[in-house]
Amino acid sequence: MNAAIDQSGKRPDSATRIETIDMHTGGEPVRIVTRGYPAIPGRTILEKRRFARDHLDAFRRLIMFEPRGHYDMYGVLPVEPDIAHADMAVLFIHNEGYSTMCGHATIALGRYALDQGLIKAGPDGMARLKLQCPCGLVEVGVAAAGPEKGRVSFVSVPAFAFALDRVVDVPGKGQIRLDIGYGGAFYAFLPAATFGLDVRRSRTKDLVEAASAVTAAVKAQVPLSHPDDADLAFLYGTILTDGGDGAGAPTANVCVFAADEVDRSPTGSGVTARLALMAARGSVGAGEWRRFESVTGSLFEGRIAATLTAGDFPAIRAEVAGRAYYTGSAVFTVEPDDPLAGGFLLR
Prior knowledge:
Layout: H1 3-7, E1 17-25, E2 28-35, H2 45-55, H3 57-64, E3 75-79, E4 88-93, E5 98-99, H4 103-115, E6 126-133, E7 136-143, E8 152-155, E9 159-170, E10 174-182, E11 186-191, H5 204-221, E12 235-241, E13 251-257, E14 261-262, H6 268-280, E15 290-293, E16 299-310, E17 313-322, E18 324-333
Parallel strand pairs: 2-3, 4-6, 11-12, 13-15
Antiparallel strand pairs: 1-2, 1-18, 3-4, 4-5, 6-7, 7-8, 8-17, 9-10, 9-17, 10-11, 12-13, 13-14, 15-16, 16-17
């Protein structure tokens, strides 16, 4: 029996001791596992993602769910890269499972990598991290000095408009027109005003209800595909916007993803996908910076860094920038007689 199979029966027990460093980007949590998580085998990062999902999911629940986490917790699992020139590889975890891309976590990882000495600043004051995510290689830049010190940006994998003006039937809400974009993960996009809502003023629960209804409808009615791998072809969530383009005042959006989880940040992969949709409509030019605002008022900046193709799709690479901050560190343990040791979620 090989090591990969040996890991498959492993579950948290009294010997478990998982260490983390916690951060936030725009208010969205990032729990980075630094020690104690079981090894995650696999030849490729997508194989590692599948293995963690199928054999080690109790550990995700342990550190994401209550009482150690909460419904909207988000985490990062460092793994061995399978791209030779990658500096680091990671899996992303949340309340439902395992994402393929996460911009807010990538921004936090850039600062973390610099502070941990995993990367060094060059003569220009910038430190650079080649980060392998499940969706592909992302290039991260961290300003280590100067007026922009602490600012982190990343250049995305190829992003594209999958569908424009697609009509879906949302039960209780009728025929709804929306766009679907890919920015490392697939999202449905539409203005919150479609439902008589305002991203900045409406109750979060109302925004979540509307976005979740759209997600369910799109999953049921729109088959997705990705030119690289079928594992990438799933709808991660829905992003409701204020209908703006971020050229003057910031454009606000709220991302509801996974199991009704609400992103406190402007959503890095969502900003990437929004820029791809804007490019497809001709409403943003290459190199033009746009600003994106979240429900917490936090801001990301984004621009088109390059144009290319992804399979048959015209595509872009987006550069997205923001800032991350430390919130603490933790060591998580398990007592054998704790009836709630495996975790739970309340909403």
